[in-house]
Amino acid sequence: MKTTVVHLPSGAPISSAALVARPTRPEPQAPRPAPTPPNRQIQQALAALQKAAEQMQETAQRLFASHREQLIRLSIEIAARILAKEIQDQNYQIEAILRQALEGIGPDRPMTVRLNPQDLQTLQQTGAKSDGTDTPLIRWIPDPTIQPAECVIETEEGIIEWIIEEHLRRISDALLSGVQTHDKNGNKNLLD
Question: Which DSSP string do the residues of the chain spell out, in sequence order?
Answer without folding.
Answer: ---------TTPPP----------PPPPPPPPPPPPPP-HHHHHHHHHHHHHHHHHHHHHHHHHHHHHHHHHHHHHHHHHHHHHHHHHTT-S-HHHHHHHHHTTS-TTS-EEEEE-HHHHHHHHHHTGGGGTT-STTEEEEE-TTSPTT-EEEEESS-EEEE-HHHHHHHHHHHHHTT---B-TT-PBPTT-
